[in-house]
């Protein structure tokens, strides 16, 4: 087909193609990329319209029936590894169903590279009487799949279910399997569905598994690990440091609810670790971090001795729990480690006291989030003091959890006006529209002169959600010109 | 074809051109760096590296039609430009989504065969994702039909296989 002929065919199609295509270009897309995406949308003719085009091309060159015949069995002309690639993108249930498609497919699913045993959805409807039965079914299922699985290596191995130390032998077997199958992502999340702490105690990462890790075979397998998540698993400093120091590709380490973790050192100039999350490790006393690759650090837990140095790339931090603000505590010593931060989330426990903010300097900060738990409706205005330290702040988020609502604001503080020149987005998550929230919104309307958007995500619970919808209407009337209200 | 019009409209480099010859005998002119993304072409060019003038080389690709090649070429070209820049993964994903959003089931198969033959692994991954998406939570019968698979089990054999993993057959949505 000559190019002039194609122009003819394209001419009526082109405006339609451009008109139809939703081009997903975000605000943060830089100019060159926008240009590329736009130019692509102009020349891309792979859409429905183009099918006609290529159909014509094919029709002109070959018999249409031949084409249909050839296409019908396209799957049979693909090698097994591509079919396994498709199967690996399905859930295990869907993958196992492919075993009955035809004899060629009978065993393909047993090479699936994603072993995702996340069955937390089943736990939503579980009761104390049915829990043990569900656990047996779950363990039986995991073991059956592992028995059939023949793949030597897997991308992910994910266990998410309510299990405790009484199921130690099964869980340890899975840990062993995950490591020996060279999983790149290994998640072991045993968070209980019904009560805390787990009745038979938190599963303890077994000495047997640790011995295997240290064997030559374990040492070579563990090198594949890139993501490692433990939740409700008692794992010690020694074991975590083993992973940190022996997995050269470890990117992301998350540890939640380990009672055995007393100290942790994440130290090494060659580490590749980018994300470190430590969550609710209630016996932790000391944490030392020196990791030049680290981008994100999230800590929620008791107050600890925290030593942080050599984190030049760290831009994203969450601090909460005992180290949060509230009960007279200040966050100064921590925040001052990180002048290069771009996003910061702080957990604030608000009681009837005056909030103290340290002198800190966050010249690069773009997004500040406050996760507020408050017992009552004390004024939230005190939080805005922090913004003085962040001259380039563009987005301010409040995630609210207020336990006792009231129609009036219990404590007020006099907050001086302060102009926030860069703030463009103000966001409330868990909004219920009570006076403290409205007071805060009005304060921001007055002081954030460049505000463009207010995002409101109402509380998940009734009647707060209903109250939120009512208040949003009030809020809409008060919006300064040029500010858009987005209500989810 | 689309490839030539696209290369003239947004080519920024003075890349050398290579000619690819499709299964239906059409000659398509592409930049050398795009041609090198296709494994058979790469092999051919390496074997014929003593040829001084790239312009004179014609690479035969007997398993891909001109229609399919002319869709692949702009995709690969743009994908190369995108991945040469330090862009976020989600942008590359947005780009891939645009390419695959409106693919018909037949076209999906054609492209999959071509991407496999040409060894364009990033496209294969994207197409595998689309295929998986289209057979998600569907019945065995639907998947067979969709993928054009001939069932060679006897009813007894199939029933036995189903009985081996009953958990896999609970709660399938209507097709």
Q: What is the strand and helix layout of this fold?
A:
The complex is a heterodimer of chains A (488) and B (175).
Chain A (H helix, E strand, L loop, with lengths): L2 H18 L10 H13 L4 H14 L2 H9 L7 H8 L4 H6 L16 E5 L9 H21 L7 E5 L7 H13 L4 E5 L13 E2 L2 H8 L1 H6 L5 E5 L1 E2 L2 H10 L5 E5 L6 E5 L7 E5 L6 E5 L5 E6 L3 E5 L6 E6 L3 E2 L5 H4 L7 E8 L16 E8 L20 E8 L22 E7 L3 H13 L5 E6 L5 H15 L5 E4 L1
Parallel strand pairs in A: 1-2, 2-3, 3-5, 4-6, 5-7, 7-9, 8-10, 9-11, 10-12, 11-13, 13-15, 14-15, 15-16, 16-17, 17-18, 18-19, 19-20
Chain B lengths: L1 H9 L6 E5 L5 E5 H4 L3 H9 L10 E3 L5 H19 L4 H12 L4 H14 L2 H15 L4 H8 L7 H10 L11
Parallel strand pairs in B: 1-3
Antiparallel strand pairs in B: 1-2
Short characterization:
The complex is a heterodimer of chains A (488) and B (175). Chain A is α/β, with parallel strands linked by helices and 488 residues long.
How would you sum up this structure, described in words?
The complex is a heterodimer of chains A (488) and B (175). Chain A is globular. In chain A, the strands form three sheets. Chain A has a 15-stranded parallel sheet that branches. Chain A has a three-stranded parallel sheet with strand order 8-10-12. Chain A is 32% helix and 21% strand. Chain A has 488 residues and is of the alpha/beta class. In chain A, helix 12 links the parallel strand 14 (325-326) and strand 15 (343-350). Among the domains of chain A are: 3-72, no CATH class; 330-488. In chain A, helix 8 runs parallel beside helix 9. Mean pLDDT of chain A is 82; it is low at 1-32 and 40-65. With 175 residues, chain B is mainly α. Chain B folds into two domains: 2-135, Potassium Channel Kv1.1, Chain A; 140-166, no CATH class. Helices cover 57% and strands 7% of the residues of chain B. Chain B is built from nine helices and three strands; from the N terminus they run H-E-E-H-H-E-H-H-H-H-H-H. A three-stranded mixed sheet of chain B has the order 2-1-3. In chain B, strand 1 and strand 2 form a beta hairpin. The longest helix of chain B is centred in the middle third of the chain and has 19 residues, at 66-84. The interface between A and B is large, with 64 and 71 residues.
């Amino acid at each position: 087909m000559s190019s002039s002929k194609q122009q003819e065919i394209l001419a009526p199609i082109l405006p339609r193609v451009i008109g139809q295509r939703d081009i997903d270009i975000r605000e943060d897309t830089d100019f060159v990329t926008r240009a590329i995406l736009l130019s692509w949308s102009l020349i891309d003719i792979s859409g429905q319209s183009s099918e006609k085009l290529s159909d014509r091309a094919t029709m002109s060159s070959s018999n249409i029936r031949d084409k249909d015949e050839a296409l019908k069995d396209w799957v049979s002309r693909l090698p097994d590894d591509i079919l396994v690639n498709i199967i690996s993108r399905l859930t295990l249930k869907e993958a196992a169903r492919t075993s009955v498609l035809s004899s060629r497919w009978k065993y393909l699913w047993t090479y699936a590279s994603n072993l995702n045993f996340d069955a937390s959805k089943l736990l939503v409807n579980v009761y104390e009487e049915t829990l043990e039965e569900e656990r047996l079914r779950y363990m039986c299922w995991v073991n059956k799949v592992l028995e059939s699985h023949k793949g030597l290596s897997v991308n992910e191995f994910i266990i998410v279910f309510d299990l405790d130390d009484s199921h130690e032998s099964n869980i340890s077997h899975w840990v062993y399997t995950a490591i020996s199958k060279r999983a790149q992502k290994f998640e072991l999340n045993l968070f209980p569905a019904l009560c805390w702490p787990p009745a038979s105690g938190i599963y303890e990462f077994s000495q047997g598994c640790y011995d295997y890790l240290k064997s030559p075979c374990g040492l070579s397998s563990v090198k594949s690990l890139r993501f490692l998540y433990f939740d409700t698993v008692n794992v010690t400093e020694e074991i975590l440091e083993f992973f940190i120091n022996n997995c050269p590709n470890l990117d992301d380490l998350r540890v939640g609810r380990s009672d055995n973790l007393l100290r942790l050192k994440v130290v090494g100039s060659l580490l590749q670790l980018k994300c470190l999350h430590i969550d609710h490790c209630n016996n932790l006393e000391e944490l030392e971090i020196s990791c030049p690759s680290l981008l994100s650090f999230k800590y929620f837990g008791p107050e600890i001795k925290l030593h942080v140095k050599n984190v030049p790339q760290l831009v994203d931090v969450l601090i909460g729990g005992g180290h949060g603000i509230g009960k007279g505590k200040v966050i100064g010593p921590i925040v001052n480690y990180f002048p290069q931060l771009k996003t910061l989330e702080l957990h604030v426990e608000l009681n009837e006291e005056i909030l103290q903010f340290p002198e800190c300097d966050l010249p690069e900060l773009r997004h500040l989030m406050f996760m507020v738990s408050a017992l009552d409706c004390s004024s939230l205005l005190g939080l805005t003091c922090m913004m003085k330290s962040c001259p380039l702040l563009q987005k301010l988020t409040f995630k609210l959890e207020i336990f006792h609502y009231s129609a009036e604001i219990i404590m007020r503080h006099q907050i001086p006006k302060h102009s926030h020149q860069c703030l463009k987005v103000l966001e409330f998550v868990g909004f219920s529209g009570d006076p403290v929230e409205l007071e805060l919104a009005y304060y921001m309307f007055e002081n954030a002169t460049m505000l463009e958007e207010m995002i409101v995500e109402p509380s998940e619970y009734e009647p707060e959600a209903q109250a939120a919808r009512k208040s949003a209407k009030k809020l809409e009337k008060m919006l300064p010109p040029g500010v858009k209200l987005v209500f989810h | 074809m689309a490839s030539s019009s696209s290369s003239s409209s947004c080519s920024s480099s003075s890349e050398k051109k290579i000619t690819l010859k499709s299964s239906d005998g059409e000659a398509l002119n592409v930049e050398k760096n795009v041609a090198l993304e296709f494994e058979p072409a790469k092999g051919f060019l390496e074997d014929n590296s003593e040829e001084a003038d790239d312009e004179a080389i014609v690479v035969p690709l007997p398993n891909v039609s001109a229609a399919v090649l002319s869709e692949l070429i702009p995709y690969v070209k743009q994908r190369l430009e995108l991945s040469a820049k330090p862009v976020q993964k989600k942008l590359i994903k947005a780009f891939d989504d645009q390419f695959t959003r409106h693919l018909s089931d037949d076209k999906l198969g054609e492209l999959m065969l071509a991407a496999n033959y040409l060894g364009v692994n990033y496209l294969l991954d994207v197409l595998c994702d689309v295929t998986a998406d289209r057979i998600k939570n569907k019945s065995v019968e639907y998947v067979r039909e969709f993928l054009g698979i001939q069932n060679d089990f006897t009813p007894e054999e199939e029933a036995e296989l189903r009985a081996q993993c009953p958990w896999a057959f609970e709660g399938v949505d209507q097709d």
